[in-house]
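Lab notebook: predicted structure, single chain.

Context: the supervisor wants predicted structures on file for every construct in the current expression panel, including those that have not yet been purified. This is the next one on the list. No modifications to the sequence; it matches the entry in the shared construct table.
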Amino acid sequence: MTITSLLDLRFAADHLEDGPRALLDILADTRAFEGCLGVQIVTDVSDPAHVVAIEHWTSLEHDDAYRAWRAGPGASGLGEYLAGPPVLTRFRDGVSL
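Prediction complete. Output recorded below exactly as produced.
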């Protein structure tokens, strides 16, 4: 079952220019990671420092492998641009209620 992961980010006030550019560079590796079906970035219309990365993965295992890679050898350094830690929420796609 496919997974949608929402990564909620808030850029620090002094990184409103370079932070989003860094994120776009970082996402090239995300999109190339095995199991990634795509990534979209949306920006809060009221607060340009607030963005959400919407990631689609072929499986929870692929998403887990990506998170482990980012926590280790694939560390992006994105944290230096953020006002606080990102918040990750993951959803199973296609679940009927």
